[in-house]
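In keeping with the milestone schedule agreed at the kick-off meeting, the structural modelling team has produced records for the first pair of proteins. Each record is given below as a sequence line and a structure-token line. The laboratory manager (R.T.) confirmed that both were archived under the project's standard naming scheme.
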Amino acid sequence: MNLAQILIHKGLVKPEDLDEAAELRKLENLRLEVALVRLGLLKEDMLLKIISEEFHIPRVDVTSAEVDAEVIRLLPRKLVYRKNLLPLSRENGKLRIATNDPFDLYAFDEVRLLTGLEVAPVLAGEEDIRKVIRAHYGVGGDTIDEMMSTDDLSVVGDASEQAENILEMAQDAEVGTLLGYTQETPAITWQDEQVLLDELLLAYDSKLEGVYPVGAADKGKPAPIAQPQKRTAKGVHIAKPRVIIPAFPGTNSEVDSARAFLKAGADAQVFLIRNLTGDAVAQSIRELADAITAAQMLFIPGGFSGGDEPDGSGKFITAFFRSPAILDAVSELLNVRDGLIGGVCNGFQALIKLGLLPYGEIREPDPGAPTLTFNRIGRHQSRIVRTRVASNLSPWLMRAKVGDIHSAPISHGEGRFIASEPMIRMLADGGQIATQYVDDNGAPTMDIDFNPSGSTAAIEGITSPDGRVFGRMAHSERVGKFLYKNVPGDYESRIFRGAVDYFQ
């Protein structure tokens, strides 16, 4: 039988008493038997007697009990007042505590966590416990709350004097829970044991390193970045340049991209690619080619085109752009009309696979070309990264200075830039390495905490030789006034504004 059933069986309460107490129990989050006592339906002394007999918990007279002064300091005042717990003594790894509610297991768990000791409860009356607590702990946190909530407060004398009086009364008040102290040594100390944080981190990270690696194996230093070459002069002047944004099946950033361009002053048009039938694909190719011909910019947004087709992303986009009509439109955009092409994440992957990056033209795949492949960690990464402008050769970065550091979100499983050492050197010497992953000190790094893809030379974004084609992994379009408030950083890379300014 539970305690309520025992009380009914012994004739101490009636079933209807339980119904009456249930409302108070729910209202004040009390145990049923405590609610019975509060309502005067059961004497506390009788309740404690029954609990002691039925559950073999000893009773003590705390008003005359000896209290260990050192044990008193084991528990914070706030917990003692809130849970009405009185620590009495410590012996054989157990803490003897007086309570009027021995079934409050949450309170005992809290004591265990704070002290590392098992709890040995003894029974005492609620008011008797409170009297002894006040005698040993002084004014408690609840006293301050009571003073501040009193309706009939009157002010006598100078306000500053009153404030001093309140502070003096509250010297011993518990206004928070002490969690611990800071220390110079980066370690966790528990009783007589101490473990260094570096050791804990290593043990945690290395457990499944062979299955899900968390550390980049390549610890080489990123290549030094040469100063950018002179930017190609613009040949057109347009007050409001038009940008065409193709949305492939699986694209998920076209709206964000369009919004960013509109904010920067461009005329943004999202073009939906249809692929349900062969005829639909052919029509989409013709219409996109016409749209590119009428635009000054082409921007391929992020996402997972084709669900990131098996064995690599961006293949559908690449195949689509290799069609003769679009190939001609892209060539005319770059070589005749001095247009710009950009791509983020999935779009960057497509630009790399097309050869537009780093060569500035669509060409057949080259074994020596750079590529984007699966993250070194072996899984998707979604987080905020810090990137440094290594070159502002590109018109997309004309509003940035070399050395500027921007924060941006990433969300990809294939963002690892890899290239041969000669290719890296060529990109660096030509000012084509646009942005790099950097640490808290602004230095390019291979540390996975800052370069989560494990990209060679910490490369996050590159350009074509003349800078008019630009691609990066970070989502510069996914920024806004109310985003990432809990992660400090400059999120305004201004690449969209730079692209618009190029034509003005």
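The second protein of the pair:
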Amino acid sequence: MAYFFKEPSHTFGEYLLVPGYSSSKCIPANVSLKTPLVKFKKGEESAITMNIPMVSAIMQAVSDDNMAIALAKEGGVSFIYGSQSIEDEAAMVARVKNYKAGFVVSDSNIKPDATLQDVLDLLDQTGHSTMAVTENGKSNGKLLGLVTSRDYRVSRMAKDTKVSEFMTHFEDLVYAREGLTLKEANDVIWEHKLNTLPIVDENDCLKYLVFRKDYDDHKENQMELLDNEKRYIVGAGINTRDYAERVPALVEAGADVLCIDSSEGFSEWQALTIAWIREHYGDSVKVGAGNVVDKEGFLFLAKAGADFIKIGIGGGSICITRETKGIGRGQATAVIEVAKARDEYFEETGIYIPICSDGGIVYDYHMTLALAMGSDFVMLGRYFSRFEESPTKKVTVNGTYMKEYWGEGSNRARNWQRYDLGGSKKLSFEEGVDSYVPYAGHLHDNVLQTLSKVKSTMCNCGALSIPELQQNARLTLVSSTSIVEGGAHDVVVKDKNVDALER
């Protein structure tokens, strides 16, 4: 007969951390959030160690090259979505690797026959006032000039004025040829008192832009995650169907780590995918796998050779797998069981395989709970989709700015590779929804605030590192009444948008 688990599964919202002894050293400034991304042997270090325990989900609405750059600056890793053509995904990876912490591929480009209105529309879309004027209107086109906010005055110019009439022309620009170092580029900027330095090839085609402000940003981003060549670290999603073509392209583009994007990791398809990677690349190509929710699933992927393992089925905010298929498990219970299996595996083999909690994060403190329960890092979709750097449109809904957000199992995404079981290449039914999330501004400010909460809570638990938190944390299940009591209650909360009446 069927096997029945004796205990109900629980979510993060059913747990609280119990405070532990905090010494005088337990202050947020002393907390380290460094965490391994890929497996390593006892006594050794992980080939990739993140500075923060956050990665972005492998989703069309979350992770593109812009998100990857923004998150790498903070010390995390973005996994660029795989539900696109191999060429397009590889191009995104290449743009991240070519960014070189200062060399920027222009995302604001316009043709010379465009109008001032087109400039204003592009400014509203990207938020960037510096625009490259290229022959084809693309980032790699022949550079004809630049447009900045100093080149036009909206109040004194007709909206149909051609860009060619007010742009700063190429012959009047200070530019540099491809091949110089970032230090040399910054020297040119300071020597000529520039805000922007275009980098062009021998045919005057635009390659990068170097901004004066990025010099300061580079100095400010002390936690940025770089490879040995001082390039940003980036991940990429793959599937269990076209890996023989996709993996080589992503590796050539410079991807530092791959991850099989699937709703079900306890599958021979994933074992076959990992086996192919090991046969052709050995251990040089790092690949995560998942998702699983129990010990058996973890051990299967561990023995298959996964470099990290994702946990979670049906816990995402836009995921309806549990509703449509009745498959899944409470995220907290899943993390606890898999973490125990990970520790036992480490004791038996001497190989530590990091685990990632994917889904179930509603509040910032849920991240701390996931880490305390044993997760090495968390994968976030909704959280990152709210930010300016996500690839989706910013729209107005009932007077409020929102960002579009949809699941990979929705009809909009049509990511059949993630959900099929080897049948026809079609999505027979939806396992995700199409939605909106409140726009939250820029990634940097939000991540900074979230991590300050995580560090503060860790101090309350007497932990200065994630391993200490996992070792020392004390957790308790709470009743529904306790959950209600945890928020504001028995009071009328003031509306922050309404000024208090003066007496």
